Amino acid sequence: MLGFIATLFVAYSFTSYILLRRPIIFLRRKRLPFEASHISHRGGSGEQIENTLEAFSSSLLVGTNMLETDCHITKDNQVVVFHDDTLDRSTGVSGLVKEFSYEELPTYLKVIEVQFTPDSYHTTLNLHGLELPGSFCIAESPSSYKIPRLEDLFNKFPNTPINIDIKVNDNLLINEVARLTETYNREHITVWGSMNSKVSKKCELRNKNILTFAPISYVIWIMACYVVGLLPFVPIKYDCFELPLVSVIRSNEFARRRHWDRFLPHTALLLSDFVLSSPLFIEHLRKRGLPVFFWVCNNEEDMQKAFELGASGVMTDYPRKLTEFLKKHPEYPKVL
């Protein structure tokens, strides 16, 4: 009996490994209709004020393939491109985005912290007599930076792939983002979703033709399947994976502020890093037609690590740095 079980286990393990290397044809997904090795996080928030038309335009000038952004909805039902649900950090005005009409929204501050900057980039900014540790983006123009609407992006960049993170569980927001995507005929070059599985599910149900990225709970499930050898047999319903480069999250001030350096979160990050740092895991997803994008890579070391793991592309706050890196390393992204 033990011999039979051992034989089954060996056969299962062997089959799983072979299919990790050579995925079953019917489990492969249709590839995205565009390539995106260079993705500008919030439009490139280390070089221009985040999520502004100026940032998006600047990143496209240096060769970005896809813009990454976030959406909220205002009191008068305008979908705006903005990261936080509150205005405080980026505008200095207290309140929720949804409490203001679009015309009432304040403009951006002229100095905003870059949240995913590596520790080595941290400096001390003297602002009005206050010494602020961290890394900051300082506005290049003396004019005000207005919070744009999603429609403004679609109008200005009609042929540019855009990745939209739906930040809150709001049915009207989801419906309006879908409606705008449909109106501008860009379902094939728009990727949307949320880290929240409930929001992600609503996005899927609202329009199955808009490309989707996997929420965090689904990523954890797929990681577990990989660990036990089930991944080659499991269908995947999303169009791409957007994964954290865990070493970035573990090492910088951004993590410490969120107490991710405490025992349980730190242990979870270590376990995640074990799987997400496996080139075979990334290779399998890509061979199944699923691009894998790592975030947020802001220095050459992180960019190199992500591409060495097999990333299809990386998100960065510094588009110029990523452009320079890719020029120096034409071998990336790796061809499978």
TrEMBL record:
GO terms for cellular component: endoplasmic reticulum membrane. GO terms for molecular function: phosphatidylcholine lysophospholipase activity; phosphoric diester hydrolase activity. It is found in: Membrane. Keywords: Hydrolase, Lipid metabolism, Membrane, Transmembrane, Transmembrane helix. It catalyses: 1-O-(1Z-octadecenyl)-sn-glycero-3-phospho-N-hexadecanoyl-ethanolamine + H2O = 1-O-(1Z-octadecenyl)-sn-glycero-3-phosphate + N-hexadecanoylethanolamine + H(+); N,1-di-(9Z-octadecenoyl)-sn-glycero-3-phosphoethanolamine + H2O = N-(9Z-octadecenoyl) ethanolamine + 1-(9Z-octadecenoyl)-sn-glycero-3-phosphate + H(+); 1-O-hexadecyl-sn-glycero-3-phosphocholine + H2O = 1-O-hexadecyl-sn-glycero-3-phosphate + choline + H(+); N-hexadecanoyl-1-(9Z-octadecenoyl)-sn-glycero-3-phosphoethanolamine + H2O = N-hexadecanoylethanolamine + 1-(9Z-octadecenoyl)-sn-glycero-3-phosphate + H(+). Pfam families: GDPD. InterPro entries: GDPD-Related, GP_PDE_dom, PLC-like_Pdiesterase_TIM-brl. One of its GO terms (biological process) is glycerophospholipid catabolic process. Its main location: membrane. It comes from the Eukaryota. Belongs to the glycerophosphoryl diester phosphodiesterase family. This is Uncharacterized protein.
